Amino acid sequence: MINHHLNSLDKKIDRRFFLKALSLMSIGFTANPVLASPLNPIKFSKDMFMTKKTKVLMSTYVTITLLDSSKTKIEEGVEETFAEIKRLAAMLNRHTDNSSVAELNKTGFQKNVLPEIQSVLDASFHYHSISNGAFDITVKPLIDIYKNSFIIENKPPDIKKINEALKLIDTKNIYFDSKEIRFQKEGMGITFDGIAKGYIVDKGIEILQKKGVKHALINAGGDIRALGGKRENIPWKIAIKDPRENKRYKTIIPLYNRAVATSGNYEIFYDKDKIYHHIINPASGFSPHQSLSVSVVAENTMSADALATTAFVLGPDKSIKFIENLEDTEGLIIDSQNRVKKSLGWKEI
Length: 349
What we know:
- The protein is 35% helix and 24% strand.
- Strand 5 (174-176) and strand 6 (180-183) form a beta hairpin.
- By secondary structure, it is of the alpha+beta class.
- The relative contact order is 0.13.
- Helix 8 runs antiparallel to helix 9 and helix 9 packs antiparallel against helix 10 (316-324).
- It has a domain at 2-25 and 94-183: ApbE-like superfamily (T-fold).
């Protein structure tokens, strides 16, 4: 497998592909919005108003759609939700020097753990455990090696460097309790790229729930959480993109008080041959290629986000079995031959 990866890259790497990946990969997490649509609630039904607003946050388009009988609740809900998303994105951004995660990666130690960091770490440990290590937040050393190799040397990394980095990869090497976090190996680092966006979307939904909103949808670049439906007992309709045809959809699913997230290798990659993309198998140190995309429906977005990443690493056959062993979770996998595999409870419109 390793030799195959290296021999396939005799061709010159096109730096534009890496720069595209670099600009998209920072789940961080752009703190300041560069695009915002106007907030103009419109009459949706006899007693309901609807609004849709989009901003660029977390290096992606974040769209909030909200329905309510009160224009004031709509306006306050949208702005408060975006403020919370912005706050959490800045906190969990490993690329910002003064963020909590960046400081932890610098020092390998942190006291007085913020509750938000604690929540994401707790979840990360859980998904690492149930996936037997397929989900692992300690892959940052590998990501750094790929970044430095492609952008500085314009070639894939040396196998020796990958093997050395693999010695640092294991969530079990993080000591963590309510008072402190400590890396147990020098050179370790963490990234919340496979879970933080989902967590942030869920916290946004909590803001709306506290305000009494019953119908809302937050879409953060494909990490989607529905609060209620578009109307009472009528679900939102969510399109799952075809990874081979950018302007086409593979299917449409109903979403009511649920979440869906998709992981794929078709948008963010290091090289023009798309051999190296943003998802890394923590066991091999290389990008998995058995799947084109994985979509997971779960109770909340953090679960869907982490499980979609996990299933992509596991590959089509193992991931279907993995998903079907989880409660209240369904999945759709599109394999490398563009064949579709679905868990038994997967629902479509």
